[in-house]
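A favour, since you know our structure tokens better than I do. Could you add the entry underneath, on a fresh line?
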Amino acid sequence: MECGMEIKMDIQVSDILNMKKMHPCKNQGSDCFEVLRIGMDIRVKCMGCNRSMIISREKLEKRWGNKIIPHIFYLSKLL
């Protein structure tokens, strides 16, 4: 990656993001987060404990594991 280049995240509401690290939930830690709202900041929900949090785009890009799973595919794997 060259200096000054930005990676644009092409995410939609209800997409599942696979993060680099697990969320430190008590019993049900998960590295998958569902996108609830997109704006200046992004609201995501942990798929393990259902806790939602607001995170800035900059922090999310650092913690993001470079994998986006569309919501429909994630649900089909669970069934």
Residues 71-78 form the longest helix (8 residues). Helices lie at 57-63, 71-78. The mean pLDDT is 77.
